[in-house]
Amino acid sequence: MLAQQECAVACAESQGISWQEAVSLFQFQKSDYLAVLYRTFIDDSADERREDVVTAGAVFATQGLWNIVRREWTKRLQRDDVGYFHSDDVGYFHSTDYYSLKGEFFRYRDSTKYPKPKGSEAAKALRDDLEAILQKSHVIGMGVAIPIKLYNQLPSYRSRCGPQTFARCICVCHAVANSSG
After folding, report:
1. Gap between the Cα atoms of 19 and 16, Å rounded
2. What's the domain range around 53?
């Protein structure tokens, strides 16, 4: 929830109406709040046996901001003729594929097109450019790592969800709690 003053920042960064228009629609008082809807992409992981740690990472933004990011992301993928792999037509990125030159980075193993070390260099350039797109945007990023031993000490949560779901929930709750400042 955003206070009226923080509404100005959220509206200024969106592609929608101004904060003054948003405030006037609801006749806000200084102590009033406004809910903001974020589109979120979350991924989680764990060690092979899920015995040591689980992790989750999430990125949050308004739909208008995601449209801008998606346009830049797609343009960069097209520059290297990288296809689309995700259900909503956005090429995905997995660090493990980057480091092993597999998945969407497999093309950089072509020794004819990319003699060593050109393939690794081209993959790094793509990764760096995709990272820069996110860094220059106002996307909110969040990551969490939860030791399994700690999770196992929380019996009330264990009965409701697994450790990876718990990690994803912490990402969302932390981002929401900190989105206003």
Report:
1. 9
2. 38-178
Chain position carrying tokens 């093309």: 107
Q: Are 109 and 168 part of one and the same domain?
A: yes
pLDDT digits (tens, 9 = 90+) for 64-118: 888 999 899 888 888 887 765 444 444 567 788 888 998 878 889 999 999 999 9
- Determine if the peptide bond prior to 117 is cis (ω within 30°): yes
Same domain for 164 and 117: yes
56 and 4 within one domain: no
Q: Which is higher by pLDDT, 173 or 107?
A: 107
Whether 24 and 50 map to the same domain: the answer is no
Phi and psi, residue 72, nearest 5°: -65, -45
For tokens 């999770």, name the residue: 151
Separation of alpha carbons 146 and 148, rounded Å: 6
